[in-house]
Amino acid sequence: PKEYLGMLEYKREHEAKLIQNIILDLKPKGVVVNMMPTLPAYILFMCVRHADYLNDDSKLKSLMNSIISGVKKVIMTYNKDLDLLSFWLSNTYQLLNCLKQYSGEEEFMKNNTPRQMKNCLQNFDLSEHRQIISDLAIHIYHQFISVMERALTPIIVPGMLEHESLQGISSMKPTGLRKRSNSVYEEDSESYTISSILQQLSHFHSTMTQHGVEQGLSKQVIKQAFFIIGAATLNNMMLRKDMCSCRKGMQIRCNISYLEEWLKENDLLNTNAMDTLQPLSQAAWLLQVNKSTDEDAREISEKCTELNSVQIVKILNSYTPIDDFEKRVTPTFVKKVQSFLQDRLEGSAQLMVDADYRFQVTFPFCPSSQALELLQVPLSLHLGFLTRI
Amino acid sequence: MEFGEETSPALVFDKDAFDLTVEDVYDISYVIGRDLLKISGSGEEVSDLQFRIVRVLEMFETLVNKYNLSLEELRMERDNLKGELQKVLSEQGASREGTTVGPNQLVVDLTDPNRPRFTMQELKEVLQERNQLKAQLMVAQEELQLYKSGILPNAEAAMVEVDLDTPPASQDSLGNLTDAKEERSTIGKMFSFRRK
């Protein structure tokens, strides 16, 4: 049995074909990529290793630049394709990790096996290219988020605010991953419900899982998704009196609990995603709670930590009683609350939440235990011109 | 964005082999890939196995693809042929009063005076009756001859009941002619033949 070194050799003139087959033409669904979603990244890295091994400066540079521009091209061409974005997010991150793990830099070598130590780059320092690839990964991430947002936007307000699931007799318990399809319509397909939102979230999550997106990164995506949902819902409430009733408050809290349950089902509770829903949660609580006595006013000012005074006042003023028996919120009460809020140190208090806010994405170093010398190049990738070294 | 089936990836293993699509092969790849991750063995053993499985699934993908394509091609061809047959038949039908002829059928032109009109059964009955009448006629002719030649006495004389089975008139039977024991009317005698 031959002892392989974990490198892939190719002739210079085959570089274009390499990029074509492993990047430009590669479909995110196939036998190889479904079984081993990050194999392309490893294959590319093994080519990089060989160019480094040959001490061939121009070959290495050319390869790195081709890889970067190849991935950029795919992302730009298919900038709305969730599958491709997710696939290259995963592989770019993996390539980045490989470049670190085998860089020879001490901080990245802590978990390396002796064999992996031997596989480190010998001649060149690729930290500059690493930076470019890191930027590329960030770009892909944000593109992914915006596709996600575009998919969520039409269903957030209907699903979180408008659809009334609580008044029905039949149990409207939504399911999470009910369909693998992207169908978001309920049986009564006239409107979107909380189920539609959960189905979309499941779709995003399963897409990322299929493409081997590293867990930490996947969690960042989910957190961002939850933020978008919370912000869009809250902003809508700020503008509509008909969404500021006790009943609506109950509905919102119910939907939030479904979202929490979805996180639980998918092992995502430790993502801080729920924290992003705090402002909305507090707004919903504010709708339900008693709003008449001084004690009530104090409690409100103390509990609504994630809402600013402009927002609290707006909700109080917008509050619509269900029927004639329920009392409106008196202006006196509102003033009372404002006096309690005076002590708060608030900067510019805006009514609307900036729904375009994006948490900064991080790509922490994730070493892998994969032994490069064990990797083979499957035939269906059409890379027969690569030689396993 | 796909509107796929309502199945989770693992349910693909329950499908019938001939119902598989290429998408199913990819789902199989995904599930097996995940299962392989759970195996902790020497990296080398699992790795070799993993790539062998990849190879097998690649071949499987090719076969499923080919099978489905061939199936589709055959269906299209069959539909085309059906369509052509319909066209040809309708053209024929338009010029031949619109009848479709089966393999064991006969087309009859109703304006043809020489067209077949009677059944086999009808024909059989008519022929049988004809044969009988012919025999009767022969007997009557013989008798007439006998009268003409004077052997038989009188046209009014009692006639013999002729048995078609017995040999032609012998002397004995002639002697019995005058025996009017079993006298019958001429016509009655004429037409009373013992049938076989």
UniProtKB/TrEMBL annotation, chain A:
Molecular functions per Gene Ontology: GTPase binding
One Pfam family this sequence matches: DIL
Residue ranges annotated for the Dilute domain, each copy included: 65-343
PANTHER family listed in its UniProt record: DILUTE DOMAIN-CONTAINING PROTEIN, DILUTE DOMAIN-CONTAINING PROTEIN YPR089W
Name of protein: Dilute domain-containing protein
Lineage: Eukaryota, Metazoa, Chordata, Craniata, Vertebrata
